[in-house]
Structure formats: C-alpha cells, structure tokens
C-alpha cells in the first residue's frame, strides 16, 4: 500500500464488493457475512488500471507515477461506478456491473484464483481522462450525472454526461468545453467544465441531499485552507470562499491571518481536507447544549465561534514516549481470522456498544471513556437520548490503552533545555515530549514538527473569514455544511453566519511516533445521512464518530445545528483507508433478525478500517428505535 494517499478503500454495496487500491491495481474482495472478512480466499479480481500515456510523471511517487491516490464508489444515475485517481493525473471510472460481470465469468470458468490479473483492455471504462497533474479529489452528483476531479494543477475538472439515453462509455475525445447553447440545458452531449482554484485541491463535494437536483453547486477544499463554493452555471470565479481554523498569527477572529506564524507552518496546518453538505432532516433533536454538544451543563455558547473541544478528555503531561512496539489492551473478546499467505488480519469483535450497561456488560460509550480517562478529575458525563441512540458493534469505542515498554528511561515530566542539552541518556526508541499541565481549548501541543523535532506548546486562536461578505449561506444553500481541515471540524449554519460550531483535534492521539508525519491529518471523511452521523479519521489510525444534533435556539426561528463526538474507534497504527456500506443480506437459509424487545428492523451499516499492515477492523452502525410512534429520525425516505 502506498503512503500519503487520501483513501485507498471503498465499498460497492449493491454488489457486496470491497475494493482496495494497491499501487496501480484495484483488489476486489467479496466480504463474508456477518464478520466482513476480506482475506485472500475472498479475493475475486485484481484490476490493472490503464494509463493514458506511458511518459507521464508522478508528483509524490516518481517510481510509480500511475499509483492510485484515492478510490471512490458512488451512484451515477441508477448505476454504481468505481473511480480511481492517480499520481500521474489519470482518472479512470468503471461501471460496477461490468466488474461484477467479469467476476462472475471468471468464477464460472474457474479462473479467479489462477489468473487474477485483468487485462486493462478487457474491462470497458466509463471514464478515462488525464487532468494534468496528480489527481486527488472525487465527487459524483447522482441525479445530475456529474463527475468532478481535482488535481495539483489547482483546478477542478467537471465531466457533465449528456442527459440522453444513449450516453455510454467515455474517453477524453468525447468531452468538449461547455457552451451556453447546450449547458446547463438541454445537455444533449457531454461537456467538461474547468474551475480554477488557488492551490492543490485534495477534495471536492457535491450536494446530494436532494436540494440541488441540477448539481449546480460544488465545494472544493484546498491546501491553502480555502473552501470555495462554485456555481457550475457561471464557473469563472468562486461564488464564495471560506477560511476557518486556529492560527498563532490570528489578530481578529473575523479575518484569516495574512501569514501563518505557527511553529508547524511547514506542514500546512490550516489545509482544508473535505466539505460535507448535510441534510437538515437527518439531525437528532437535542434539548440542551449539553446533549447537543457533549459539553458540561454550564457551557456558554459564544456569539461567533463555539469551540466544543472541551467535550473530549483533556491531555496533561507525558514524560516519554517509547517507540518500541507498545502493549495494546483492547476490551472485549475477539474471533481473529488470519491468513499467513497474504498477511490480512481481520478483527471481528463480539461486543456491542451504544447500549446501557444493563443491556450489555461490555458496551462503553465515548462519554464513559471520557470520565474514566480525564486526568483533571472533572465530571465529563454527557447525556444520550435513548430515542435516537446509535448502536456500534465492533471494537470497543474506548481508545486503546497504550503502555510504554519497560525500558522507558523517563517516568516523570521533563522540561526542554537549549539545543546544547545532553540527550545521550536516551535510547534510540525514546522521545522527549513535554505537555503543559493546564491544557485549554486554545492550546495546541506539538510533540514533534515535520516528524522528528519536538517543539514547545503554542497558543492558537480561532478565525473565520467568508468572502465576499458575511451574509451567510441563505441565498445559495439551505443546508448546513461541515468543513474539515487538517486539525479542525467546523459546522456552518444555513440562514446565518454565526454561531459556528467548531472542534479542534477531535481524534488527537496521546501516543506519538516521530517517524509518522502528520498522524492527525483529517483526510478520511464519510457520512451516513440516514443515521445522522459522520466519521472523520486520520492516518494515525483513529476514527471519530460524530452525531449530528439540533436544538431550538431562543429568539431565532431556525434551529441551531451542531454535532457531538460519540465514539472513538481504531488503533494507533498507520491507516490507509476507510469504507462504509449497508450490511449485505445474509446468505439464503440463514435466519434474519426478528422484531423484539420493542425494536424495529432497520438497516445496519458496516464500517471497515484498513491498516497499512493489512489488518482490517470491522464495525456495524445502526439505530435503536424504542416501542413508540416513529419520529422523524426513525424514517428513511
């Protein structure tokens, strides 16, 4: 698996195909029910991706320029499509039905395990186009039949397929620049639209909530920290630009700093990595700030930026971090399936989360973890509504307990001295890290910069700038949006600019490896609209599960939209990809779940985390509904 990529795994739920991008190939697995095992025995196909030209150069991988940066499976109209983007700028799309047809044919001929490599010329492509430089972002608008690809050219290329019954596979020769006579209507032929940004763009996103059926609006997230809203009907310049984050150089909360003075400025700490457009009907009702944010009862919401980072445990001091393999203690009982042939290790835990202790002896909610691990002795108890509780089946949501090795030299806090201080007493596997004893929501801790040099803590202050103007989103979008940066998550309200609900370092690990750069970069982002949750993960190995909430705001006719962190999943190891899909149907003949204990049947979701050592963690998400009249959150339309 290649390092420094965005997301190298994806699910094709209708076909029950789990796709893993490995170098220039796509490994296609058929996971088992119910533990989602994807071992070598479940490998169904390997797709060798074609290239547009043999002389293309790579940006981050000169030795393998065609290596895949991201893979995604989305719906284009009624069809599932799989798209990969590569370091040489190639974007390749397939119909999943064609992939499934090839799998069925090979299995019928007994070729699946004999000759897994597929000739690129044999599998028809839906899209094969080069966008100039290393490609990263993928977005698909289902109803409008649009595909957007972003690249290090600082541009976004939008492919608009003809709205005719004869639109089929496309190559670079089929697309033409959009013209006023045919785009946006009647779109009798295919078009390509180019949006000119300001920096490398790792992510793009459409509004698929149903409020933008024509696919007119597109968000782009750039490394320079700018989230831009584009109007594809007038694509010359962005309609709006948002910048939000925390910087040591902030002078005014209402203006982005002109120059970053953060100690880790070389690692672009304010980069924007994703934007989510949210469906307002998917938010869970809350009755208090405590329930909505996960904060204390006496939390006071500011008029501008509401920092709810205090809802997670505070980290105090850590004297020394051992880099030797740690002792990892995970609650629960595991049925582990492993294959020595391919090194794939599947964790299929038999514990259930999201229930009360009376229902399950092993379940632990995120709020319980906070109370158990909070070092300042404060009561961090939060409220959970049983009516709309989210169940999680999988590894315990509590962070793994990491125990430094026995030969760690330092057991007490140690202050940094000047550059001439003697550190010869340390072994190569030990690293000095100092933490302040009074960590607050405005303090950012940098145990290392650039992956190797420890630096002192630095105070950062929030900023938000929307240009042009501060009139909010009401003239453009009626849906709240979430902006995900390298270190922050921020929810912007529709109809008004403030308050912005923000959270910094939500999946911050208190185990650090100087040889794993930027472990908390929020480059893995997914959402499940029907459950009202979204997930943010980092290459550091952890994934936060966030619940969307809303409550009536006094004096305002519109609700206050927010979110809270409910679970922390995963292990502190290198993570290469995450994937979401509804749980597949059980094999014919197996019993299906019954309606009992006041619960109604509802669709469960599976969540797989793929680690660099080919270990896979599998979870299930579902909504628990009590025996009562269904509410808005209980209905899926």
UniProtKB/TrEMBL annotation:
Pfam families: CRT10 (PF08728). Residues 356-387, 404-427 are annotated as: Disordered. Residues 368-387, 415-425 have a biased composition (Acidic residues). InterPro entries: Crt10, WD40_repeat_dom_sf. This is WD40 repeat-like protein. It comes from Corynespora cassiicola Philippines. The lineage of its organism: Eukaryota, Fungi, Dikarya, Ascomycota, Pezizomycotina.
């Amino acid at each position: 698996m290649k390092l420094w990529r965005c997301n190298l795994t994806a699910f094709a739920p209708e076909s029950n195909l789990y796709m893993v991008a490995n170098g220039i190939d796509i490994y296609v697995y058929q996971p088992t029910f119910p533990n989602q095992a994807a071992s070598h025995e479940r490998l169904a196909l390997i797709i060798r991706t074609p290239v547009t030209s043999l002389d293309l150069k790579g940006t981050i991988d000169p030795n393998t320029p065609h290596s895949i940066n991201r893979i995604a499976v989305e719906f284009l109209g009624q069809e599932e499509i799989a798209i990969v983007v590569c370091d040489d700028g190639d974007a390749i799309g397939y119909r999943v039905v064609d992939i499934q047809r090839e799998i069925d044919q090979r299995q019928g001929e007994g070729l699946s395990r004999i000759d897994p490599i597929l000739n690129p010329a044999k599998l028809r492509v839906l899209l094969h186009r080069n966008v100039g430089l290393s490609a990263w972002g993928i977005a698909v608008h289902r109803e409008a039949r649009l595909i957007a690809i972003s690249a290090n050219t600082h541009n976004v290329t939008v492919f608009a397929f003809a709205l005719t019954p004869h639109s089929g596979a496309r190559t670079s020769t089929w697309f033409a620049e959009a013209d006023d006579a045919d785009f946006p209507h009647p779109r009798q032929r295919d078009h390509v639209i180019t949006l000119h940004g300001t920096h490398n763009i790792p992510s793009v996103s459409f509004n698929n909530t149903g409020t933008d059926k024509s696919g007119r609006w597109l968000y782009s997230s750039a490394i320079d920290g700018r989230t831009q809203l584009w109007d594809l009907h007038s694509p010359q310049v962005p309609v709006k630009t948002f910048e939000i984050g925390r910087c040591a150089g902030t002078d005014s909360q209402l203006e982005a700093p002109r120059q970053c003075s953060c100690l880790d400025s070389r690692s672009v700490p304010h980069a924007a990595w994703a934007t989510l457009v949210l469906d307002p009907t998917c938010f869970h009702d809350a009755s208090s700030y405590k329930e909505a944010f996960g904060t204390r009862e006496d939390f006071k919401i500011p008029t501008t930026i509401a920092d709810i980072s205090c809802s997670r445990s505070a980290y105090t001091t850590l004297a020394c971090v051992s880099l030797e393999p740690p002792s990892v203690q995970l609650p629960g009982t595991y049925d582990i399936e492993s294959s020595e042939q391919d090194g794939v290790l599947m964790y299929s835990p038999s514990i259930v989360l999201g229930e009360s202790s009376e229902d399950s002896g092993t379940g632990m909610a995120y709020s319980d973890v906070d109370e158990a691990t909070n070092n300042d002795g404060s009561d961090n108890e939060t409220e959970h509504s049983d009516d709309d509780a989210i169940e999680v089946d999988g590894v315990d949501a509590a962070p793994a307990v990491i125990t430094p090795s026995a030969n760690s030299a330092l057991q007490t806090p140690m202050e940094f001295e000047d550059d001439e201080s003697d550190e010869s007493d340390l072994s190569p596997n030990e690293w000095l890290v100092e933490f302040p004893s009074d960590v607050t929501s405005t303090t950012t801790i940098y145990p290392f910069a650039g992956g190797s040099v420890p630096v002192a803590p630095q105070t950062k202050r929030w900023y938000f700038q929307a240009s042009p103007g501060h009139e909010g989103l009401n003239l453009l979008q009626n849906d709240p949006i979430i902006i995900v940066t390298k270190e922050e998550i921020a929810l912007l309200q529709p109809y008004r600019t403030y308050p912005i609900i923000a959270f910094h370092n939500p999946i911050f690990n208190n185990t650090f490896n100087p040889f794993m750069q930027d472990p908390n970069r929020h480059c893995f982002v997914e959402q499940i609209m029907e459950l009202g949750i979204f997930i943010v993960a980092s290459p550091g190995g952890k994934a936060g599960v966030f619940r969307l909430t809303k409550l009536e705001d006094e004096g305002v006719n519109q609700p206050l939209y927010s979110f809270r962190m409910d679970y922390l999943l995963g292990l502190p190891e290198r993570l290469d990809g995450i994937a979401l899909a509804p749980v597949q149907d059980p094999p014919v003949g197996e019993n299906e779940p019954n309606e009992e204990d006041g619960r109604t049947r509802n669709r469960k979701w599976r969540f797989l985390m793929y680690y660099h050592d080919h270990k896979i963690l599998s979870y299930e998400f579902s909504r628990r509904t009590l025996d009562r009249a269904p509410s808005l959150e209980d209905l899926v339309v």
